[in-house]
Amino acid sequence: MNLTDHLKQNKQTIVYFYPKDNTPGCTIEAKDFSTYYDKFLKHDIGVVGISRDSYESHCKFIEKHGLTIPLITDSDLTLHKQFWTWWEKNNYGKIIQGVIRSTFLLDKSGNILKERRNVKANWHVEKIMKELKIQ
User: Fold this and answer.
1) Active site (catalytic) residues
2) CATH number for the domain including 13?
């Protein structure tokens, strides 16, 4: 499924961009979204993770960690560039191009209702839940 298909399934959708499958921060974030996925769905909010990783990588990531959220491959950076999440960043003093960990709340039409950029993985999902008043 592509992002447009996911947006049609719920009143709103959380779309989060992350750097790489199976890295510590990305695993924390994916597992946290999976843990609370049913609570989001009860509020008619879907969740979709997006990275440059391949479909095969996503399948292994999902299986290894028991993830319940869908993941989308964006190897050509189309979505990353559309949402301005592929940018220069400072990696231990070296400027590189890379993914800026970001989260968006979109409506069915893809309009951005809320956005958080350059987020930290730890406690990020809990902060979103609090902000959206999801218990």
Assistant:
1) 26
2) 3.40.30.10
Query: Residue 49: in which H helix or E strand, if any?
Result: strand 45-51
pTM of the model: 0.93
Question: How many domains are there within the chain?
Answer: 1
What is the pLDDT tens value at each position of the chain, 135 positions in all? 899 999 999 999 999 999 999 999 999 999 999 999 999 999 999 999 999 999 999 999 999 999 999 999 999 999 999 999 998 877 788 888 899 999 999 999 999 999 999 999 999 999 999 999 998
Look up the domain containing 74 and give its range: 3-131
Give the 3-state secondary structure of 60-103.
HHHHHHCCCCCEEECCCCHHHHHCCCEEEEEECCEEEEEECCEE
